[in-house]
Every structure is written in C-alpha cells, then in structure tokens.
Amino acid sequence: MKLTAIIYPDAETDRLVAECPEIGTASQGRTEAEARANLREATDLYLEALPQTLKRPAAIHSFELAHA
Q1: Taking the domains of the chain in order of start, what are their residue ranges?
Q2: Which one has a higher pLDDT value, 60 or 27?
Q3: For residue 60, is pLDDT > 90?
Q4: Rounded CA gap, 62 and 5, in Å?
Q5: What residues contact residue 12 under an 8 Å CB cut-off, 6+ apart?
Q6: Can you spell out the DSSP letters for 9-57?
Q7: How far apart are CA 55 and CA 22, in angstroms?
Q8: Considering the chain, what percentage of its residues have pLDDT values greater than 90?
Q9: What is the pLDDT of residues 7-37, one digit of tens each?
Q10: Which pTM value belongs to this model?
C-alpha cells in the first residue's frame, strides 16, 4: 500500500511533524527519516486495529497566494 507522508517543522519544538492525509495519522521525529519511520509505525498499528478506515488516495496540489 502506498501512502503519503507530509513532513513539516513543528512551530513550538525542534521536531518535525509527519502526517498521513489518507488515514489521518500523525507522528514526529528529530529527523525526516525518524519522523517518517514513526509515522509508518503509527499508521501500521492504526490500520491493524481499524482496517476499515482506509480512505481514498490523497490528491496533493500546490497553490500560490499574493500578499499586498
């Protein structure tokens, strides 16, 4: 199963947040690799307990904003 990991810095800590939009799971880590591994584990455990929660694939799009 191929899922998406969105990784970004936490504004309040020195950690990175990793989220899976298809499932709704999230985790964190000190590095991208650690955040991704923690998200993989959290998502695997979540789906093991609640397999019916698999949602449709996420669509990732970019957009621009113009500030005045």
Answers
A1: 6-53
A2: 27
A3: no
A4: 15
A5: none
A6: E-TTSSSEEEEETTTTEEEEESSHHHHHHHHHHHHHHHHHH-GGG--PP
A7: 6
A8: 60
A9: 999 999 999 999 998 899 999 999 999 999 9
A10: 0.81
DSSP designation for 8: E
SS3 for 61? coil
Name which of 6, 25, 7 is nearest 15 in CA terms: 7
Distance CA 47, CA 42 (A): 9
Sign of CA dihedral 40, 57, 49, 9: positive
DSSP one-letter code for 7: E
Contact 25, 14 (CB under 8 A): no
> Residue 57 to residues 20, 23, 27, 29: CA-CA distances in angstroms?
10, 9, 19, 24
